[in-house]
Amino acid sequence: MKFFLFLFALLFGSYAQAYDVDKVVLSSLPTYVQKDKDSLPFIFSKAPFDKANYKASQRFSDHVIWHKIHFPTPNKAVTVDLQMNNYLIDDLDFYFLQNGKQTQHWRRGANQTWQNQVAYYNGIWIQLTLQPEQDNTLYIRKQSRGPLLTPLQLHQNADTAITKLSTTLFWTIALTSVLVLLAFNFIIFLQFRYAAFGYYLAFHCFILLSLAMMMGASRWFFPEFVHHWLIESKVTLFVLAAWSLYRFTIGFLPTSRVKTPTRRRYWVDCIFFAYLLISVFFSEKISAILFIIMQISMIIFCLQYGLKSYREGFIAARFYLFAIIMVSIGSSINSMMYWNIVPFNDITKAALPFCNFLELLGFAIAFTDKAKQIELNTTLKIQTDGSTGLPNRYYYFEVLQAKLASMSHPDIALVMIEITSHSQLSQAYGPNQAEQATSTLIQNLDNSLAEMDSVLSLSLPNNTTRKLVRISTNKVAFICVSKQELGYQVESVQRFLDTPILIGHLDFHYQYNIGSALYPSQSNTLDSLYQNALIACNHSRVDIDTWQPFNQTLKQNYAHQLHLLTLLTQDLKNGCLYFEIQPQVNLATREITGGEVLLRWNNKQLGQVSPGEFIPLAEQAGLICKLTDFVIFKVFKWAAQHPKLLENRTLSLNISALDMLYEGFAARVISLQQYYQLPASQLVIEITETSIFENSQVMFDNVNRFHKAGFKLSIDDFGVGYSSMQNLIALQTNELKVDRFFVAQSLTDKSSAILCRNMIQLSSEMGIISVAEGIESEEVALQLEQWHCLIGQGYHLYRPMPCEDYLSLLGS
Question: How many CB atoms lie within 10 A of CB 277?
């Protein structure tokens, strides 16, 4: 019941006012500027108050300013309430005089202690009791470092109660709304841990303190000593808020393409620090002027940075921009009130808290947008390759299935492409440059396929489409939706990959294999489709053509090869492989000059396995280096046990060119040779010419190490590989072995004879030892001798033999 009576009084009490407060003019008050230490009696009786001084009194002033309000004499005693809405004046005193005598004095300045003098604080209120038949005059004394705005309002009876209640409600709603939204944003931060959120909290803490101070709620919200500190440090708080917003902006917005240089960030921090020192040691007027410049600069920076980030696709920048605009509007209106550019009224007074509420709401939505962006980026990261942005292995096995399910009767082909030279490129130029070159190649290939409608377009979470799937570092694949155009697509890919690219200062030709498999005729799942395409791709390594379509025979062969590799790995681990020696002879004297070490494998299940079968498999599977280490260790140990073996004779060891591409390979071999105390000059390292990688610095380093240690280097199978003359120079070759293909046909094929003779002649003119492989008859041996070939080997001369037989042969 009391509550309804109170509301009734609030609603209808204003109609029972006995005194018309509107007759009191508060817009332009008589004003006196006190420049000397005048006494109060002089001020009250003789000081020259003039309305012309009022306008200037609302700005900054180093003097004490006085205002005088004369109240019309009432018919009877009446109480009126004066409200002061500027809470930032340092010293503010009210003197009430009746008939020239001071009856009351109130202190209500921001730096004055008076809060314990009021029962309940809800702003600056002065209650005046006007007496009839008396001269009622109020004097206002003010002095402050800031602007001396004097927004005054008179209230009476119920209007006073309504205004006080409205003020308290306004503070409660404004500060509670800000705190609730700030707490909500903090909860979002705990979930997603956004970058620079500490600066965001700092910014809004400073804003909250500034807001409470500007609205006059800081005395209501904090102890009085805290309020005094806030008043003393208000410009400093503004500077710290601007710096926190700057730091939050560069931490919250940057994407991979929107970055703030560290050096520029350092200089901006220095500028803010200078502003901070100015706000502490200089007058408030100077600090406020400089802060206005900084405020405008900050608004321009944040808007430009936000727009740039939004154009780069950062969706959270939308409501970040909205929040910054709200901050700009609120702070601009507040600054214009501070400088007396716009009037102080209920609308302008509510502008800052209302804009701060909208700003917090904007940031809350921006954080939600960023959460979606993080989720999108996470999904994109899971489904795409980081270097190229192409769909990855996960996309193929997890996402593509749903896309195929949506297609009616899909009849497709999976085309897999393996860049086989990626490993050599990595060893030659380093993994970073190799990855960069391969990624560029793959991206360009994807672009070339983009115009082919018969290649399936793959949709990504960021609403882009690609054609290729990057399965691994050196494997990509695409899906052909028209089997009739499969051949055309593969030919287009081959033409693209056959084009050399520039790496460093050299044109590099990528080596590649292509395999394809059909769905659903050859595979009924994506797993089996992938498996079949991979089998076809691997088989094309040993085929002349770079493209191999899948068939069931390939699958059977692949299973056999996999079984072969498994057995080879086991036997290598158990030391079950062995070597034989094929003697090499001087064709002129037929004396044995040395021998070539040949690796052999006799498996319990498979029996004798040809090197032509397991050596290429070992190279493909990355097992060749272990095989090489095994052979070198066994041979060096055996040679050390028979020191006469290398007296005036050589021992040749075959290695893969892949071995030469491993850093430290030569050092390992030399270390082993020194350990067993073998003469390096009698050891020949044979490198197969078909797989030499010409432009490898690692290879050059290994070659130089071998030569410095005294080893001899030989090019094996010369003429059937790249046949580059650079190989003779790059390897600083001591020996050249003419391939058996030319030697065997030297009597029956004119072209082979010419090439064989020229290679022998080339060796002679370059001072290189010429060795002919595959001599199967005496006629061939004699012909080679006539051409001045120095060394020969072959079944006609000696077959490969066990080590013991070779030693016996040398002994006889």
Answer: 12
Which residues have a Cβ under 8 Å from the Cβ of 804 and sit 6 or more positions away?
none
Quick check: 803 and 579 in contact, CB under 8 A?
A: yes
Question: Do residues 230 and 213 lie in contact, with contact meaning Cβ atoms separated by under 8 Å?
Answer: yes
pLDDT in tens, 304-319: 988 988 888 788 888 9
Residues 146, 88 contacting (CB under 8 angstroms): yes
Which residues lie below 8 Å from residue 562, measured CB to CB, with a gap of 6+? none
Task: Please indicate whether residue 37 or residue 211 has the higher confidence score (pLDDT).
Answer: 37
Residue ranges of alpha helices (H) inside 253-316 are: 262-281, 284-311
Answer whether the bond into residue 520 is a cis peptide, omega within 30°: yes
Please indicate whether residue 286 or residue 729 has the higher confidence score (pLDDT). Answer: 286
**Residues 35 and 187: beta-carbon distance below 8 Å:** no
**CB contact burial 358-370 (16+ within 10 A = b; e otherwise):** bbbbbbbbbbebb
Kindly state the average pLDDT of the residues 710-732.
Answer: 72
Q: Specify whether the CB–CB gap between 37 and 57 falls below 8 A.
A: no
The predicted structure's pLDDT at residue 238 = 87
- Lookup: tokens for 186: 């903090």
**Are 56 and 147 a contacting pair, CB within 8 Å?**
no
Average model confidence (pLDDT) for the chain? 84
Which secondary-structure segment (H or E) carries 443?
A: helix 431-449
Query: Is 414's pLDDT higher than 70?
Result: yes
Q: Which of 578, 627, 584, 616 has the alpha carbon at shortest distance from 804?
A: 578
Q: What is the pLDDT of residue 342?
A: 82
Paired residues of 391 in beta bridges: 384
Give residue 8's pLDDT: 44
Bridge partners of residue 792, in order along the sequence: 585, 772
Residues of the chain above pLDDT 90, percent: 29
Residue whose C-alpha is closest to residue 16's, from 158, 127, 130: 158
Instruction: Please provide the DSSP assignment of 447-487 as one string.
Output: HHHTT-TTBPPEE-TTS-EES-EEEETTEEEEEES-GGGHH
Q: Is the CB of residue 295 less than 8 Å from the CB of residue 331?
A: yes
Choice among 228-237, 585-594, 642-651, 687-696 with the minimum mean pLDDT: 687-696
Reference 361, options 172, 175, 176, 182; nearest CA is: 182
35 vs 19: CA distance, rounded Å: 36
- H or E element: which one contains 609? strand 607-609
Kind and range of the H or E element at 67? strand 64-71
Question: In angstroms, rounded to a whole number, what is the distance separating the alpha carbons of residues 386 and 380?
Answer: 9
Residue type, 603: N
d(CA 655, CA 293): 74
pTM: 0.55
Q: 595: Cβ–Cβ under 8 A, 6 or more apart, which residues?
A: 581, 582, 583, 584, 649, 650, 651, 652, 806
pLDDT band (50, 70, 90) for residue 11:
very low
Q: What is the pLDDT of residues 122-146, one digit of tens each?
A: 889 999 999 998 999 999 999 998 8
Report how far residue 271's alpha carbon sits from residue 265's, in angstroms, rounded to the nearest whole number.
10
Task: Show Cβ contacts of residue 761 under 8 Å, excluding neighbours closer than 6 positions.
Answer: 787, 788
**Reported confidence tier of residue 186, pLDDT bands at 50, 70, 90:** confident
710 DSSP assignment: T
